[in-house]
Amino acid sequence: MSQEKILVTGIGILSCLGDKQQTWEALSLGKCGLKLQQPFDFLPPLPLGLINKNPSALHPITDRVIKATLKDAQISAPQPDMGVVIGSSRGCQGNWETMAQTWLAERKIKGNWLTNLPSQPAQMAAHFLQTSAPVLAPMTACATGLTAVAQGYELIKRGYCQRVIAGAVEAPITPLTMVGFRQLKALSRNGCYPFASCRDGMALAEGGALLILETETSAKQRQAKVYGEIIGWGLTCDAKEMTAPEASADSALWAIKHSLRHGNVNITDIDHIQTHGTGTVLNDAREALLISKSFPQQPYINHLKGSLGHCLGGSGALSLALTLMSLQQQTLLPNHNHGDYDLNWVNKVEGADFHYSLCFSFGFGGQNAVIAVKRC
Question: Annotated catalytic, 303?
Answer without folding.
Answer: no
